[in-house]
Amino acid sequence: MAGIRVLLVDDHAILRAGLRSLLNTYDDIEVVGEAANGKDAIQKVRELQPDVIVMDVMMPEMNGLIATRYILEENPDARILMLTQYGNKEYVLPLLEAGAAGYVLKQAADTDFVKGIHAVYEGNSYLYPPIAKLVLDALMAGEEAIDPARRLTPREREVLVLVAQGYTNSEIADILFISPKTVDVHRTRMMNKLDLHNVAEIVRYAVRRHFIDPYAD
After folding, report:
1. Cα(90)–Cα(147) distance, rounded to whole angstroms?
2. Which among 9, 19, 48, 169 is most buried, taking Cβ atoms within 10 Å?
3. Which of residues 113, 141, 169 is at a domain's end?
């Protein structure tokens, strides 16, 4: 049986090494590469064509949400399993909406993580039980319908995160491969939808809603 070819994407080298050691104990899984941020992940996916991409959320240069969108735009069949410490609905729902096939918390047991890899490889979805409950509760409560952030387009949400992380319009344009003028359009629409008026308010909103981690490296 051919092994499941896995790409590990996380900005912590020690964690990647630990995950590689764990997965090397399984005969049907092969770690074919690693990336330290979303930008590197996009390039590694192009080069290696992995079966499963294990992706963190908060990373420097490009976070997991933006990378997930770009990878799936280029390769709609890519199978992305989020492995992160963030279990808030503000993280979970946008990532699932972007197309992530599974979501596992880093505090989960090794068996849950490996089960997630097998599930998404086989074309199924996999949600760590507490995440599945969170998603079900959000749907039952209809929270996504009343949350102003849910009115943002995926691109507007990307701009929100990058502005909050301190990037200029020119830098955001380079990251997203669009023009500074287009960035300004998305930024203006995002601010209007959320009733935000300056960068300070954008940062406070992003931190309050857990779109960014103020304590991240």
Report:
1. 10
2. 9
3. 141
Assess if residue 215 is contained within a domain.
no
pTM for the whole structure: 0.69
The residue whose two tokens read 């502005």 is 163
Same domain, 155 and 104: no
* Distance separating alpha carbons of residues 58 and 43, to the nearest angstrom: 18
Residue 146 in contact with residue 191, Cβ under 8 Å? Answer: no
Residues 38 and 115 in one domain: yes
Q: How far from 198 is each of 80, 88, 137, CA to CA, in Å? A: 34, 25, 33
Containing structural domain, residue 33 = 4-141
